[in-house]
Amino acid sequence: MLQLTGYPDRPPVRVGVTISDYLTGVFSAHAAVASLYARDARRSGQGAVIDAPLYGAPLRILEWTIAAYDQLGVVRGREGNRLANSAPLDNYPTADGKYVCIVAGSDTNFARLCKAMDRPDLLDDARFTKLADRATHGDEINGIVTDWTSARTAADVERACVDCDVPVATAYTPADMFADPHFGARGDLVDVDDPVAGTMRQQAPFPRFTGERPTAPSGAPRLGADTRQVFGDLLGLSTDELDALAADGVI
To answer: Catalytic site residues?
Structure first.
């Protein structure tokens, strides 16, 4: 994943979040549900041990990287925000200092983008007629789109693209998320009552069932908050025994 992330003329770039940890958790949860289903469906009563090393999850999502090397000897490398076989596609700068991701590589989406930019003439340009042509002249067509976005605000660019059904998204900051009415209407951010830090806004549980608004999870307990309950329930220790352990500083 490091080999694929960043620009070709610069060192590899770390992904912005700890993606291997999160992906391993997601894949492991899926495996746990599958093992429970297998246990119950087969009526065997047998569970399973899940083998989920951290490197396995990123390996699984490497798309065609392995097959390309196996069949063609191709070593996939960093391409930044663009793709060698598709254009226009990039995170384009806007007049208000933001970036807007536009994906218009297919012939259909390119025609829609030309309409959004009010540039129907580009459809008759031999350099941009088909996807392969645009990929060959990627710098030129991406430069034209950059000139268009750079003269407009992110909101104006996004509105023009949405009106013409062009896949588009503005790079968001937390402030943008807090202010977005879509996030608010869907309940994507919830207030969590943390016993240490107090109330804080965090991401809501995901995914969710249709028609059910996500509820805020409880905050993580203080260290040792549940020790007596755990020792009492799982180990069967009496109140007197727990008091003795507490008096000795064990718990």
So the answer is: 21
